[in-house]
Amino acid sequence: MEAGDHCAAGGHGRRSHHSDEMKRNLITRLNRIEGQIRGVKGLIEKDTYCDDVLNQIAAIQSALNSVGKLLLEGHMKSCVVERIEAGEYEVIDELLVTVHKLLK
């Protein structure tokens, strides 16, 4: 977690505030994933051998998992800790729901 990353309650619910470096890292990764997805679409349009397409899909899933892990780590080190310190123990149940979704 980068210095300056934290979560806060805003006018529209909870918000996460990541450092500029973390945002750039996440956006760079997501842009790369977006390009990979367009690449898979192109492979399908060109009738590329299925195994090759499936390997590209596996790489995309791995990249998305990496983004999710980064966000989860930051969330646990900041938002979850802050809310527990504030006595908001329901954050643990919220976290468990989120982790279950990520592990599907």
Verbal overview:
It is a single chain. The chain is mainly alpha-helical. Strands 1-2 form a two-stranded antiparallel ribbon. Helix 1 runs antiparallel to helix 2 and helix 2 runs antiparallel to helix 3. The chain is elongated, with a radius of gyration of 17 Å. The protein starts with 5 loop residues before the first strand and ends with a helix. The model has no long low-confidence stretch (mean pLDDT 89).
Terminal CA distance reads 25 Å
Q: Could you give the order of strands across the largest sheet?
A: 1-2
Q: Which percent range describes the beta-strand content?
A: 5-15%
Name the structural class.
Answer: mainly alpha
Q: SSE layout and pairings?
A:
Elements: E1 6-10, E2 13-17, H1 20-45, H2 50-85, H3 90-102
Antiparallel strand pairs: 1-2
Helix pairs in contact: 1-2, 2-3
